[in-house]
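Q: What residues go here?
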């Protein structure tokens, strides 16, 4: 009888040990998850909405963060292609020439944007890209 009692106590102690070990592991995992959320990235997947991410990128760009400015420029390259396609079809100028001018303009627009301006960043980019495409010559 004594042998079976010590066995059950041993099992209970082992079960308690596993429960405590599991509890510690969950705490470690929870802390790691909290750290990932604080860093706002998990293997390239953002935990912020698109609007929040853009606002954060604009805030960083206004503080002079060059990487944020380049990221904003990259995010607006689809606008460059859209404007270049329309402008090339209207004027007959080469599409790639318009894309090149627009790409350089969007980088300049991101670099020159100031948060104190009363113009939204998308409109600021559109103005710069349109001007650049109008100024393109067949040189």
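A:
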């Amino acid at each position: 009888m004594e042998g079976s009692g010590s066995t059950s106590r041993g099992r209970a102690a082992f079960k308690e040990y596993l429960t405590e070990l599991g509890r510690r592991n969950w705490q470690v995992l929870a802390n790691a998850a909290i750290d990932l959320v604080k860093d706002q990235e998990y293997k390239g997947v953002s935990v912020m909405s698109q609007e929040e991410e853009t606002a954060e990128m604009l805030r960083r760009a206004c503080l002079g963060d060059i990487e944020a400015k380049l990221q904003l420029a990259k995010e607006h390259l689809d606008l460059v292609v859209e404007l270049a396609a329309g402008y090339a079809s209207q004027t007959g100028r080469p599409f790639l020439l318009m894309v090149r001018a627009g790409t350089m303009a969007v980088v300049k627009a991101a670099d020159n944007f100031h948060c104190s301006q009363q113009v939204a960043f998308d409109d600021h980019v559109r103005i710069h890209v349109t001007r650049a495409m109008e100024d393109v010559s067949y040189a």
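A: Context that may help when evaluating the design: Residues 60 and 71 are 11 Å apart (CA to CA). Residues 2-39 form the longest helix (38 residues).
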